[in-house]
């Protein structure tokens, strides 16, 4: 099986090995960056398949690793003492890290997270969910339906899902539901039986210099599904619609979902529930199926649920079953997550949103759930490249809040560049957004927030910790 396009630097570093051979006969693996969502989920799946797994990271793991040995640091000594047959790297780990260099010196096979995951995924009946936004929730919904419907799938998700109890499940059934990461192009290594594209928005500008580069990558992903496989696309997204126009139509069935009755899967007659939740009527090929009632809020989650229902239908799970399961879905960790409420009735929520489209969707949904509460946002920009490219859009999106504070950029290993700082967002907001440091954030919020307000921490970094601290002191 040929390797599909990834960045040339990654192909060179990982030696362009054939996917069918990359983990052949390997019994002992070590994961660098195991504390993150994707790497911890991968570690659990590898361990469940009988491999001897260990890992290390610079911070204590946020996710439960069970009995997997963990070392706090990166060090060449890990290679010497643990003697792994393969080293699996998080995208955050530098290729010139001394631990990586020691592995190369010893001739140990070095793999990316996507390579190791795709090795398991591609031999299964894979359901791969990709998109700049919404893929975690859509993957969570899809995985929960397949689990509750008794199909015993393997599930891999980039966040903890309370209703599932983990970010990974190792099942004995034929299906493998996986959230796939487009950020570095490695989602092209995966060849699903059913591919879902929630959207093809422009993000990760360090890897995709133009919008066209994003569309081309998602089109290759769409055409990389197995022969005769299905493609499920959001008809409401301009990027996904462009992928539909460009992808090969002869490879299998293509289903689109969106608003109204004209799509393969449609939603209409939306009703928002005060205090949280949203419902709609669902149609399939123009035929009304019934009402879908969600505990989670936001119109974007109706679209996410349509994608999950469509994938379930292809596996023989009827709408009534899927709708009943989704009624009990309470969301993924860090997706409009209620963290707690203070004695003075200040509600604290947290969300992973860091792209302007995500910020707008989250603020719209949260404001709709709690219209009586003044919304105060603490936002942490993620990556200098994204902040520089979308500074104006971020400023306009944050303008939807009653009050917005912005922390310094969470660099994710990037170097600062011109117009890439939080100050640029503040400048473009005409002073409507206020800068705050991590050290001062708690005191500033304590002075700002009043009885009945809503504090929303937002961003892909560690901004959630400020909300958690606020709850402990109020």
Short description:
With 474 residues, the chain is α/β, with parallel strands linked by helices.
Structure description:
The protein is α/β, with parallel strands linked by helices. It folds into three domains: 8-116, 3-Layer(aba) Sandwich (Rossmann fold), CATH 3.40.50; 124-327, UDP-N-acetylmuramoyl-L-alanine:D-glutamate ligase; 337-472, Protein-Tyrosine Phosphatase, Chain A, CATH 3.90.190.20. It has 15 helices and 21 strands. It has helices at 8-13, 37-48, 76-82, 98-105, 113-121, 135-148, 211-223, 238-246, 299-314, 319-327, 356-369, 384-398, 422-428, 438-448, 464-472, and strands spanning 28-32, 52-57, 70-72, 86-89, 109-112, 125-130, 154-161, 166-169, 175-179, 194-197, 230-234, 254-259, 265-272, 278-284, 287-294, 337-341, 347-351, 375-379, 403-406, 433-435, 454-458. The protein has a ten-stranded mixed sheet with strand order 8-7-9-6-10-11-12-13-14-15, sandwiched between helices. Helix 9 packs across helix 10. The longest helix is centred in the middle third of the chain and has 16 residues, at 299-314. The radius of gyration is 22 Å and the shape is globular. The chain starts with 7 loop residues before the first helix and ends with a helix. Mean pLDDT is 88; it is low at 1-19.
């Amino acid at each position: 099986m040929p390797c599909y396009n990834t960045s040339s630097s990654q192909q060179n570093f990982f030696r362009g090995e054939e996917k069918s051979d990359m983990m052949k006969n390997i019994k002992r693996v070590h994961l660098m960056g195991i504390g993150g969502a994707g790497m911890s989920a991968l570690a659990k799946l590898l361990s469940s398949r009988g491999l001897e797994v260990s890992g290390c990271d610079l911070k204590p793991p946020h996710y439960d690793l069970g009995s997997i040995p963990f070392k706090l640091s990166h060090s060449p000594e890990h290679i010497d003492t643990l003697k792994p047959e393969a080293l699996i790297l998080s995208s955050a780990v530098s290729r010139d890290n001394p631990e990586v260099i020691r592995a190369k010196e010893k001739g140990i096979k070095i793999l990316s997270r996507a390579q190791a995951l795709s090795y398991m995924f591609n031999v299964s009946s894979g359901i791969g969910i990709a998109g700049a936004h919404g893929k975690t929730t859509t993957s969570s919904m899809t995985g929960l339906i397949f689990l509750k419907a008794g199909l015993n799938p393997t599930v891999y998700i980039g966040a903890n899902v309370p209703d599932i109890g983990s970010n990974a499940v190792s099942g004995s059934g034929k299906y493998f539901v996986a959230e796939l990461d487009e950020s570095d192009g490695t989602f092209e290594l995966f060849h699903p039986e059913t591919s879902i594209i929630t959207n093809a928005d422009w993000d990760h500008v360090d890897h995709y210099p133009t919008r066209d580069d994003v569309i081309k990558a998602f089109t290759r992903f769409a055409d990389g599904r197995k022969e005769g496989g299905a493609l499920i696309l959001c008809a409401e997204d301009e990027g996904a619609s462009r992928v539909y126009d460009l992808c090969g139509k002869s490879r299998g069935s293509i289903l689109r979902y969106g608003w109204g009755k004209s799509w393969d899967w449609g939603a209409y007659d939306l009703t928002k529930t005060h205090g949280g939740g949203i419902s709609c009527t669902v149609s399939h090929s123009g035929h009304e199926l019934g009402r879908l009632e969600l505990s989670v809020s936001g119109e974007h989650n109706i679209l996410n649920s349509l994608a999950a229902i469509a994938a379930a239908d292809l596996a023989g799970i009827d709408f009534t079953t899927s709708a009943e399961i989704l009624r009990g879905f309470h969301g993924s960790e860090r997706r409009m997550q209620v963290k707690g409420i203070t004695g003075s009735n200040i509600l604290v929520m947290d969300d992973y949103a860091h792209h302007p489209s995500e910020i707008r969707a989250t603020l719209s949904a949260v404001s709709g759930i709690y219209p009586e509460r003044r919304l105060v946002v603490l936002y942490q920009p993620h990556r200098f490249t994204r902040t520089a490219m979308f500074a104006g859009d971020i400023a306009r999106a944050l303008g939807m809040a009653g009050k917005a504070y912005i922390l310094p950029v969470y660099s994710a290993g990037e170097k600062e560049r011109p117009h890439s700082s939080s100050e640029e967002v503040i400048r473009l907001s005409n002073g409507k957004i206020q800068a705050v440091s991590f050290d001062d954030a708690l005191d500033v919020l304590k002075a700002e927030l009043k009885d009945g307000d809503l504090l929303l921490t937002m961003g892909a970094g560690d901004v959630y910790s400020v909300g958690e601290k606020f709850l402990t002191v109020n």
